[in-house]
Amino acid sequence: MPVDPDLRSLDIDIPSQPDALVRLSLLLAREPVDLQSASRLIEADMALAAAVMKAVNSSLYGLKGRVQSVQQAITYLGMREVAAITYEMGLRAAFPPAPELGPLWVRAARRGLLMGRLAQRLDVDAWAAHSAGLFEECGKAVLFRHAPDHYRAMLRAAGTDTELAMLERAGFGVSHEALGAALCESWGLAAAAVASVRHHILAHAGGPLPAAADRRPICALSVVAHCLMCAPDTLQARAADVAVQAGLDAGEVLDAARSVHERLEAAAT
Description:
Layout: H1 5-8, H2 19-28, H3 35-44, H4 46-56, H5 70-77, H6 79-93, H7 102-122, H8 126-135, H9 138-146, H10 148-157, H11 161-172, H12 176-186, H13 191-204, H14 216-230, H15 235-246, H16 250-268
């Protein structure tokens, strides 16, 4: 998808989707998904496959025993989670390594996993939810690559993402959620995932979910994941609020959030 001309006029480069992810997205669009072809595609890119295997064998996934191949990872985790890890590694590789971005990628992996598993429990599009979680902060990486020294100072100065977005608009004419949504669009993510990335700062701060009803559930899961990661004391109240807006059952959302969080915590120990 083309990038918004208004963003192009700012001369901030948005990286193109890696070829391996373009081909993987085409495979994922088929029903049923050809698991062997997807496995071979990931394994054909040695650097990508190595990064995927390292992630799969990390404590985040809590697998018993070391996974030796992409096919084995698919068997244990399922195609969606392995594909999401592949997207995560492709996204990270699109930006130069930097200590300031390390915590961003750690949060992205955990948020994506939380949102994907929550969606699966709640019968929401799990692939769109997982990818929305992965890409939620990617606009920060875009701005860091564009002006590392300037943006490094902004990251230090801002106490919250709301404050950071204000600094970004003043300094660059655009904030990271808009750039993140543009990157999602250019990489072909689902419209609901794009909307979640575009609206997450407002939603996390207690604002409304996206206007379109079919865009709200995934943004609601972003709010729930944010509570689990950053403000667990607010989970019950915020889960009830966003569930109503998204047309989800508040009790089911809260039960799913607690269960998924407990399982991930247990896997990491």
